[in-house]
Request: fold
Amino acid sequence: MIIINLDVMMAKRKMSLNQLSEKVGITLANLSILKNNKAKAIRFSTLDAICKALDCRVEDIVEYVPDEKEGI
Amino acid sequence: MIIINLDVMMAKRKMSLNQLSEKVGITLANLSILKNNKAKAIRFSTLDAICKALDCRVEDIVEYVPDEKEGI
DNA sequence: ATAAATTTATCGAAAAACAATAAATTTATA
DNA sequence: TATAAATTTATTGTTTTTCGATAAATTTAT
Reply:
């Protein structure tokens, strides 16, 4: 499972969703969807813009969480 | 700029593109496009499958490279 | 040279981003 | 607690892009 977590970096940068959406260049509504893990894909241009806006690495905001099961 | 790099992990797992495409469940052609940074977006389901197939983290295969310029 | 692996190219279909907008909900604050 | 601000959710339409299927071209290995 892929998890998006913008909260930590947003807090660190003291940035609101509104501010972030402006910096990133996508609408508040769509950024909210992304933030709440309702999106099913992402354009690299968007991911790039987010990393840039939050001045962070990819791993600061997107994580792969293996589903527990076989081979723990 | 967002960079996809599958080579390192593929080497580590001694896995060919062909094998990976089968494990991931997308065609060889499309995986090649992704591997060579020709894709403009990615579905989380695909990213998830790749991390699973290569047993690695997101940051092992996708990286944000800030463009040098202002504020170095 | 031959085979295997990978890349590139088409085409079409399905999926999904994203904009624009508005309403609902949650959270903060005076 | 009333009000405002921030965030989430919903809807509709457009556009973009994935991805499958397939084949050809190219590169790499044997």
Remarks:
- Strands of chain B lie at 2-4, 41-43, 62-64.
- Residues 26-27, 29-30, 33-34, 39-43, 46 of chain B lie near DNA strand D (CB under 10 Å from a C1').
